[in-house]
Amino acid sequence: MDSTTLLSIIFLLTGIALFGIAYAAWQRARANAEAERISGGRILLNIEPTTILTHEEPSDVRMKKMADICASVGRRSFGEELDYSVASISRMNRMIQRGWGKNGAAPSDNTVTAMGAYIGEVLARNSRGRWVSDLTYVDPATLLFVPRNVAPEEDVIRISPFMMVRQKFAKMHGYDLAAAFTATEQKLKELNAA
User: Fold this and answer.
1) What's the pLDDT at 60?
2) Where are the domains positioned within the chain?
């Protein structure tokens, strides 16, 4: 193969790579414009990877940061005070119905993660649960509960707050986050794990 052919192949591959990058940027800009259109001119949760959130930090630290982001957005965009109280779960339920209930738009994965982190953090602060990593995209962490008077290797309970949020979005008016949260708390008490 002569040098002209080799250079032609290199330039062709470079052009294809640049086209791919430009196409990805165009798709992202379209998605952001669509999110802005759906949210009425405000981006509800536009979480970009930054040095604030890193994948190397412990799950409990990441989940607390995500919960703080959710609480901030709830206050600024929806006027709902998400103060980590059990009562704030009802306010989150109302916030979801107001923000997504009418137009049926699917939430982004980041939205589900932030809201699930908030619900999990409320549960962790009001019980003996602790965050542990799940290392999956769907459930980046779960809450671990070990019932009292039980050996740690027996009857470990894992709860996914992200599943609660996904259920809410799947059954917008037929699933109440506050009722699900209360039922979870009650079950943990029954199992002597709260």
Assistant:
1) 86
2) 1-38, 42-190
Dihedral of CA atoms 78, 83, 88, 89 in degrees, nearest 10, equals: 90
For 115-172, write each residue's pLDDT tens digit. 999 999 999 998 888 888 866 666 788 888 877 776 655 677 888 899 999 999 999 8
| Residue 186 half-sphere exposure toward CB, CA atoms < 13 A | 6
**What is the pLDDT at residue 118?**
95
Under DSSP, the state recorded for 148 is T
* Phi, psi (deg, nearest 5) at residue 65: -65, -45
Helix (H, G, I), strand (E, B) or coil at 182: helix
CA distances from 159 to 34, 87, 130 (A): 33, 20, 10
pLDDT in tens, 74-88: 999 899 999 999 999
- pLDDT at residue 40 in the model: 46
Distance, CA of 9 to CA of 16 (rounded, Å)? 11
Letter for the amino acid at 64? K
How far apart CA 55 and CA 179 sit, in angstroms, is 32
Predicted TM-score of the model (pTM): 0.69
Q: What span, in angstroms and rounded, lies between the C-alpha atoms of 136 and 65? A: 18
Q: How many CB atoms lie within 10 A of CB 47?
A: 18
CATH code for the part of the protein at 42-190: 1.20.120.1090
- Residues ≥6 apart with Cβ < 8 Å to 133: 58, 59, 140, 141
